[in-house]
Amino acid sequence: MTAESSPGVFDGKVVLVTGAARGQGRAHAVRFAEEGADVIAVDICAQLDSVAYPMATPEDLEETARLVEKTGRRIVAAQADVRDRERLTEVVADGVEQFGRLDYVLANAGILPAAGPQGHDITAFTDAIAVMLNGVYFTVDAALPALLRNPDGGAIVITSSAAGFTSVSTEFGTMNHGAAGYTAAKHGVIGLMRHFARSLAEKNIRVNSVHPGGVATQMVLNEAMAEWAGAHPSFSLAQQALLQLPMMEPRDVSDAMVYLCGPTGRYLTGVALPVDAGQTLK
């Protein structure tokens, strides 16, 4: 069968993915396209001063679009900052106009502003909250009008972190504004998830969160984070998984996204799902 004719879990469906230019977001967009979904892909594609590692570029988002189109599915890819509610609303509306519907929301956009001297600036805290807490709320808010038009409901999955259950900071030396902001935001989205799960259940819209441990993306595998982890052995120790497995790849998290959004997850809502090889059991 060709990519266009292959049956998939999400045939005829549409997914919104934030932070889609690379890493987990790109993996989710491509995986959902492989399962038959058309994709609305959003990424800021710009650098934040509070982030010590290089962030995604417009070329990264173009590559995501190319990979989605290679599956035979359609994509609307747009540069947008999840902190900008009006811009998000415009992008979602444009995608829905082109595709006719919206079924799934993967609120994935995130930053890790704990490393480097930037982590000690108060903007590292405010940016973390703005992107990963406010930005999640704005993403869901922008998507809700289209989701609510579906008679069969839909699904929302929020990307939290293992740090949604514990703390990025592991000792006094790792305590900074960026670590605090990341930890607070990733804890906070559990509350948002439960708020939406209860509120939207009667509309048959399921809402869950995933909590990955270390994933092999540019957010984790970069010079600034390597230096920070090397200077603080307690941080590296806290990231170790219990299962003797290689470091997770983005597609491993995509498997959880497919599970939660697809028919296999039809009885799941309000669930904070660890995908961390036992990291948070220690």
Automatic annotation (TrEMBL):
Keywords attached to this entry: NAD, Oxidoreductase
GO MF annotation, one: oxidoreductase activity
Keyword Chaperone: no
Listed SUPFAM superfamilies: NAD(P)-binding Rossmann-fold domains (SSF51735)
Gene3D superfamilies named in the record: NAD(P)-binding Rossmann-like Domain (3.40.50.720)
UniProt similarity note: Belongs to the short-chain dehydrogenases/reductases (SDR) family.
Name used for this protein in its record: Short-chain dehydrogenase [Modestobacter marinus]
